[in-house]
């Protein structure tokens, strides 16, 4: 998503040119290009798919809407398996229209995980609940903290359900370091994503994530927390940023790699 | 602030017409009208000032900036005393420019409270730390949760330092009800403010607070939490909303009173 202006072949080629061996993919461009075709493309380019984003949106009350969401999530699991990644990132969903019941919405997520977890396991895929920043609690994700995500995940085996640690969403939370330790000791850090925090936030607060090094976060410190918790997996940089999307994607990817080296690598 | 388009005399007159006996004031219009003059105006109108907003902004590192902030906060305490309110609401401040040290910023707040608390007590004023929504953590307030606010407040006597419970800032937090109980049992709920949560958030995320009943919150439930914690003080409605500010202030105040009766009173 950081360079969504690039087509998948352009992305694969640019990763090759920059010696980037891992890439996280989103469902929409993969579906548009074709799931099998994408799998072939990344294999041929020697790329490993780190995660597929995103399943989720489990909070509907209406039974038909719930059944539809679960069917779509099974497809997302299948897509992840085809792409060769073992991790499907989940954005759990906001409050249904007119509802004010956060607790009920969180319980419906647990119900969905109970159905989806065994199916994902059968395809060799782990689910990674991503707590989203509390500013998205009403309309995108009622899971707002790592503690809440772990409270949900720990109802299920770790090889079925874990969490995504994304610095953009949790950096403000003074309990996040101890929750990262909790996640690590349970083997539940299934994905680790970086973005920096910059202000002012744009209207709708979706596409204002900061380029690495531009904002309020000490990303090396956060890398230290997940490493101290035993995490040795890939590190994704996931930037939703209108400014970056308006630029040449190859240049943005090169800049992001430079920033990563300057601000994240010890 | 809900009807900042009204002058202070218009505000006092409209409160009288609507049989509203309590009002929370902000420093800027009070200073513009004159502190003594405002005190006379509200006394003559039979109004009680619930709180004065706001002191705070304690996170500067530079000694001169810190001294200036403390001096301004002493003035705010004096203004509160002159207005006859016992509560000064504090917005603690964000990260200083270029800093990434949330922990250090929070410690500097504690240092400032240690200096300001005894002065406030000497004037009969209590300080009320307001945790602001985590979307303000970088640029306005590094105190993002009731738990953090109480961790700070509890270093000092409750008659010097407590918290402001504002639904807009804490509604997403599943630990907030237990933290309200913690605050209540320590006699530290010094102010209670209502606003609803509506999306999409506007650019800068400052002036998009929802009118009572328009959004995702069950405000009666939140009133229940503070009452169960022993709170019997006034309830403020504090809306920063460009749409409401563009309308006739008398009409907005009447509407807000109606909404309060419909959505908050049992």
UniProtKB/TrEMBL annotation, chains A, B:
It comes from the Bacteria. Keywords: Isomerase. Residues 26-255 form the Xylose isomerase-like TIM barrel domain. The keyword Membrane does not apply. One of its GO terms (molecular function) is isomerase activity. InterPro entries: IolE/XylAMocC-like, Xyl_isomerase-like_sf, Xyl_isomerase-like_TIM-brl. Signal peptide: none annotated. The keyword Isomerase applies. This is Sugar phosphate isomerase/epimerase. It comes from Streptomyces dengpaensis.
